[in-house]
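Please, structure for the following, as C-alpha cells.
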Amino acid sequence: MKKCFRIILAALLAVALLAGCTEKTPAPEPQDTEVTEPQPAEENPPAEEITPEEEKPPVEDPQPVNDYEFNYLLGDTGLILTEYRGSEESPVIPDEIGGTPVTEIGESCFRGKVCLKKVTVPEGITRIGDYAFEAASALRKIYLPDSLREIGDGAFSGCGNLSLVDLQNGVERIGEGAFLYCTSLVSIELSEPLEALGSFAFAGCTDLASVKFMGNKLTEIPDRAFYGCSSLKKLILPTSVKSVGKRAFFDCARIENLYFAERIEKLGEYAFGGCERLASIDIDCETVSKGEFSGCSSLGYFSLRDGAVSIREEAFANSGITDVSIPGTVTDIAEGAFFNSAVKSVYLDEENKSYAMIDGSLYTGDGKTLIKYFPADPYAEEPQTEFTAADGVEIIASYAFDASGLSRIVLPETVKEVRAYAFINTNLESVEIPESASVDPEAFPSYDEGEYVPEEEREETVPETLGSIAGDKSIFREEDYSSFREVTNAEFDDWCDEYLAYNVAMGNPITTDLIPYTMMYKGEVIPHFMGMTAVQNRDPGMWAEAVSYFGDDFEETYIMMNHGLFAELERGRMKDDLILYSGLYDSQVMAAAGTDEMPTDEELVAAIGTEFTDPVMISTTTDPAVACGFGDTLFIIYASHDAVEAHGALCMEAAARSSEKEILMNANARYRVLDVGYFSVETEDPWEGTTVTLYRRYIKVELLG
C-alpha cells in the first residue's frame, strides 16, 4: 500500500514540479518629490500601479499621512486599494485620493495584517476583493457601507476574532470561503438582494448561532456553505432555494428543524449529515442523496413526498430514523441505503410497483432481490432472532442483513447470489445457504481472533559507512555553516519564547488563535501534502483526482490551503540560522536526484552541487529522532535566516508545544545538494522505555533564498 501511494504521489508531484512560486515585492517608501496631478481615469491604463510617490503633492501642501499607507491602482470606476502598509488598529480607509474616488478594496489588501482590530469601510466602495482581509486574525469588527455589492472569495477567511459584520442592504454576492473559519462570528443577517453565495462561505464558523436571509433571490445553498457550524440553531432560509449542495449543513449539530418551501431540484451528498438534533425536516426532493441524513440521531420519522424517485446509498446511515414512508413514485433504492441505521419499519405505498414488502422486509417488486431485512413485527416485545427469506428470491443484496440482530438465517434453494457485505454487523450463529449459490468472499465480516499483535519493529540495518559517502565530490564544509545551529530539545522551549518575542517585535504575533490554518495542518499529513501541491500549482484537476485516493476530506484540505495557510507562513519568520530535519517521501528524494525512480546512492552523489525545487510544503523538525520516524531518507536542511525571510516558514510549536518540534516551510523552495551519506540517532522506545539506535540515509541541502 505504501508503494502504491508513493507511485501516485510521485506522478502528481511530477506535474507540480512544472510550476513556480512568486512573492509580493514590498511597496516602496514615499519620497518627497513633486508630481503632476493625476490624469483622468480614461487616459490611464487600468492595470497601471499608482505608488504613493506619484500622488504626493509638494512639501508645502502635504496630504494626510494616511494616503501614503496604501498602494493603489486605477480601475474602470475609480481607485482600487492594493496594499495597506500601515500598522494602525483602526485604519481610516479613504473614500478618495487626489480627487479620485476609491471604489474597491483590492485582492489581499489587508491580508495577514494582525494589527487590525476594527475597520470601517466608507461609502462609495462597491467591492471587497478576494482575500482582502484573509488571516487578519485580530480583526474584531467590520462596518460595511450601503454601496457595497460584492464580497470576494476568502475575503475574511481565517479572521478568527471577527464577531461583528454589519452587512448592509446592497450586497448581491458573497464569494467562496468569504467567512471561512470566522470562529467568533455569532450571528449574521444576509441582505435582501443577495443572489449568489459561494461554497464554504461560512464553513467552520463554530460560534455562528443565527443566520437570517432577508431577501428571496437566492436559489442555491452551495457545497459546504455552513459546514461545521456546530452552534447554528436558528436558520431562516429563503423560499426561493431550489438546490442544496454537498455537505451544506454537515455537522450543524444544533439545528432542530429545517423547512424548504419549494421543491428541491438538487440535493447534495451528506447535505444534513451529522445534524444530531434535527428533529423535523420538511423537504420535497426527487432524490434522497448519499448520506443525506447520516448521523441525524434525533430524526425519528421521515416521509418522502410524491414525486421522489431515488434513495441513494447510506441515505439513512447511522441515523436515529426508525420509520420511513416511501411513495409509489420511488423506482430506485440503492443497496446500503439503510446501512447501520435504526430503521425498524418501512411503509411502502400500495401504488409502488418497483418494490414490495414481504413479511416486513423490503424486496424488489418481482420478489427476486432482498434489499433489506426488517422485522415482521418491529414493535414486538421480544425481538425477532430467526428469519427465512421468501421463496423465489434469487439475490441477497449488499448490506441486506446489516445490524439485523438475527442469530439464524435461512435462504431458500432459489438463491443464486449473495453479495459483498450482506451479513456485515451481525452476530450470526448459523446461516443456511444453498450450495449452488455464489457467495462473495466479503459477504461475511472477518473476525480477528486472539489478542491484537502490534506491527513488528523494523530491523535496523547498520550501513557500511556512517557519515559522508560522497568522498571528494562533497561540497559541504563545516566552516561555511558555522553560524547554523541545532536547537536541542532541552533548549527548544526557550528558543520558542525568543522566537515569539521576536515576531511580536516585528508585528507578527504568533498564538494558536492567530494561526488556525497552520494548526489544522497538523492533522492527516498525506492529504495535506497533496493539498499543498495542488493549491500551490493552482491545479484543480490534481486535487479532484486526489479525492479518489484520499476521500472527501481532501476537499476540505484544498479549501483550507487556498484560504489562509500561505498568509500565515508569510507572516511567521525565524530569526536563527537553523539545521532542520525532514523525513521524505520517495518523490522528494527523486526530485533531489533528478530521477524518475528511487535513486541509488551513486545517483544521489552525482546530484551534488545541483539545485532543485521541492513543490510541496515541508514539515521539518529540530529533532532528528522525530524526523527518522517519518521517512527512510532525510533532508538535513541548512536554512539561513535570510533564506527563510525570502521564502516563508512558521514555527508551529512556538504556539502549541508538542514533541514534534515542527517548523513548517513554504512550498516550491529551492535547494542545493551539498552531501549524501548515512547517520545514526539514538532515541527512546516509547513502549519499552529503552534506548534504540536508528540508521537513515541523509541528503544535506542548503535552502536558497
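Residues 531 and 689 are 36 Å apart (CA to CA). The first strand starts at residue 49 and ends at 50.
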